[in-house]
Design a protein that fits this description.
With 77 residues, the protein is mainly alpha-helical. The protein has a single domain, classed as Non-ribosomal Peptide Synthetase Peptidyl Carrier Protein, Chain A (Orthogonal Bundle). The protein is 47% helix and 0% strand. Helix 1 runs antiparallel to helix 2. The longest helix has 13 residues. The radius of gyration is 11 Å and the shape is globular. The two termini are 18 Å apart.
Amino acid sequence: MDRRTKIVELIRQVTKQELNPAADESLFDSGLLDSFALPDLIGAMEKEFSITIPDADLNPRKFDTIELIEQYLDAKG
């Protein structure tokens, strides 16, 4: 499973929705994620990708799209 597929799967697990958002679709504007779901997604990403995401990075703009999440993971890489 590639990383983008893993990200989408994590979003589905956190939101309990089977939606398949486009890579550039705003996860927050679409209502798929909100500020309450973001920490759950961050925790799942930390576990799945074996990274630590500092609290200072808990900014919805950094995780607004799948593309931005991938860029963030690249930077942490």
